[in-house]
Amino acid sequence: MAKESGAESPVFPLCRVVLDEGLCTGEVPGGNAEVPNWKKLLDADGKTAVREAERAIVARSSLADQDYVSNVLQLFAHWALDLPASENHHHARPYGLFRHSAEVASATVQDLQERWSPGRGCILPPAEQALWLKVAFALGLLHDCGKILDLDVRGSLPGPCWDPFGESLAAWKSRHGKDALAPTSYQFRPGRGLTGHEQKGIRLLEVILAGPRWNRLRPPLAAAYRAFVLRHQGPDPRAAVPLAYLAERVHQADILSARRDRRKARHREQEDLVPEKNPSGRL
C-alpha cells in the first residue's frame, strides 16, 4: 500500500486498497450447471491474447493468484455463453459478447504492461501495479456485462424469461434441461441506448461476483467500473489514482476491438461478393 506522503497530490489521491494475497483463489464452482471451459467459447486469436495477458499478470502475482485469469473468465462464461455483443454494431453473432470482452480485457492488460514497464515513469509501486492489472482485466472483461440486460432470453421454453439477477444463463439452461452450448434464443429489448447498458452493469457486477471468494476484488473493481461509466462526463480531477486512468485504457481497448471486428465483417462481406471461380476452367 502506498505510504502517506506530504508530496502526494490532494487533487489526485491514490486509491487506497488492501493488498492481501489471493485476490481470488481456488476453482470457481459450477453450481448445478455443466459449464464448458471458457476456452471453448474463444477462437484461436482470443486464446492467444488471453495467454499473453495471463503471462503479464502471473509474472507479478503471488502463488495464491496464479489461476486468477482462468477463474474470472470461467465465472463470466456462466453468464455470457453464446450471447452477442450487439444487434448490428460489432460482434453481433454467437459468442460475440464473451469474445469481445475477453479481447478488451487482454488488450488492456497488455497495454498497461507496456506503459508500466521499467523506465516509463509509473507512479504506482510494483505491488499496486500487480493488483491493478488484475482489476483492469476484470474491468475489461465485465465492461459490457450490462448488455445482458438488453436481452430477453426465453425461446420456446415455458415460464418467464431468464433473470440474470437470479441465476446465470448456464444455470437457467440447466434447469430447463438444455445444454450450455445449445443455441440461445433471445430478443433485443426495445428502447435500449448505446451507453445505457454501462450504468445497468453496475448492478449486475455484485451478482456475477457473488460469494466470499470475490470479496477482495469487488471493492476496487466496483470503483473502477464507476469511473468507467462516468468517463462520458469528462475527466474528474477528484477521481482517485488510477481509477480514471484504467477506465480510459479499457475504453480505448473497447474502441479498437469494435473497429477490428467491423473491419473483419466488411472483409467477409467483400469475400462473399467475389464470384466463385469456375472449377473446370471452361466458359
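Above is the first protein from milestone M3; the second protein from the same milestone is given next.
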Amino acid sequence: MKHKSIELILLVSLVGAFAVLSNIETASASPGTIYIRPDGSVDPPTAPIQRAGDVYSFSGDIFETIIVEKDNIMIDGNGYLLQGPGSGSGFNLTNRNNVTIRNSQITHFDYGIQLLESDGNTLTQNSLTDNTWAGVLISNSSGNLISRNTVVNNIHDGINLWGLDTQSNTIIGNNVSANGGTGGGDGISIGLQSSYNAIVDNIVTGNSGAGISLGWEWSTGNVIAGNNITSNVWAGIYIAWQTESGNEFYHNNMDNTLQVFTVEALNTWDNGYLSGGNYWSDYTGLDSDGDGIGDAPYTIDADNQDNYPFMDRWTPQAHDIAAVELTPSKTIVGKGYTLDIDVIVTNQGICSHTFDVTVRANNTNIDTQSVTLAGGSSTTLTFTWDTTSFAKGNYNVSAATTVVPGEIDLADNTCLDGIVKVVTPGDVNADGIVGVVDAAGVSAHWYPGPPIGPLGFNPNFDINNDGTIGILDAAIVSANWTG
C-alpha cells in the first residue's frame, strides 16, 4: 500500500510536470497584453505604467499580462495589483537580463512571474498569491535573485525551479507558505537538473505537499540552509530519486510530521562541527557536553544522517551584516559635479567583523570602503560620487556589503534607494531642457542671500555644491541655456 501511495504521488506530480511544460510552450500574449518594447516604449502607451529612464512604475492596477522585451530596467509595482484571468503569466521574461521586478501584488495567473532562459534578474518584495501553477517559475535561467517575496496560497507550487540550465539562482528571505491547495503542490520545487542553487533563510510552512522538493533527476549541488521548514502537510523535504544526490542541507529548522522522505539519494545533512547541522523537532538525543549539538546523529535513513543535530532551533544571529539605509544628498545632479551618498550599515550579529561596503550606480561601482563593527553596532559611511565619467541618464543607486564567514541571512546585505538623475548642469528639473523653468526654480529656492527663496534650501538646486543657492548657480543655468 505504501508503494502504491508513492506511485500515485509520482503519477500526479508527473501529470503536473507535463502541464507545467505545456503551459510554458503554449504561453502567448492576449489581445490586451502590455509590452515593454526593446526601445523602452510602453505598448500600449495608455497602460498605467510611467517611465523615467530605465525605471517603470505602476500608476494604477493592471489586469493584463506584461511581456518584458528590454534588458537593464527596473519595474516598480508601487504596491498596485497585477491581476489575471486565471491563465497566462503576470510578468513574462524570456531571454531577458538584469531586470528588477519589485513591490507588485500578482494574482490569478498560471504563473505570477515567469523567467524563461533569463539570467541575472531580481524579483524582490512582491506578493504572489492564488496563481495556478506557480507563484514564480524559473526555467532554464541562471544567476537570478528571488528575495523577500511573499509567495502564499498558490494552487500548485510556490516557487518552481526547472531545467538543465537553471543554476546558481539564489532564493533568499521569502515567505513561501500555504501553497499546494488540494493538489499537493510544494513550497519550493527544484527539478529536472536544476543544480547549484542556494535556498537560504526562507519561511517554508504549511504547504500541502512538501516544503522543499527535489525531483525529476540530476538536481545536485544545491545548498538548502537556514530555512524554517515547518508544518508542511506531506513532508518537510522530499527527495524523489537516487540521482538527487550531492546536495547540502544545514541550519534548517525542521518541524513536520514527516521530516524527510528520500529515495536512495546520498546528501549531506550538516556543515561540520561546530557549524552544526539542522534542528529536528523529533530528535531525542542528549547533549552531555552542553555545546548545543546532540551527542548522537539524527538518522534520516540507512544512508543519510545529520551528524551534528542542534538541540534548539537555529538562529542566524552570530554573523549577520546589513546595509539598512542609503541616502543620496541629491536626486538630480549636473554631469561633472559630485554628490554624497550616506550609507548606514549595522552588525546585527554578536561577533565582530571587518567587511567591505560598495556603492553602485546601476551596475557600475562608485566606491568601496572597509569597516570594522562590533556585534550590535552601526555606523554611517559617506561616499562621494563624481559623475564626470557617467553618461547622462537615470541611475539606480544601491549599497551592498560583503558576506562575512558564517553569514546566512543575506537578504539585507543590499539596500536600494531609487533613482539619481545625471543631467546637463543647470537642468534642475531634469526635463532635458535648460531654460526658464530652471532659472525660476533656482530663484524660488534662493538661499541664503537676501531674500531667502520661498521654497527654502533644496540641494538639487545647489548646482555647484557650495552650500548656497544663488548667483553662481544661476550662472550655470545661463551658461548651459538651451531654451
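Note on the second protein: Residues 2-26 form the longest helix (25 residues).
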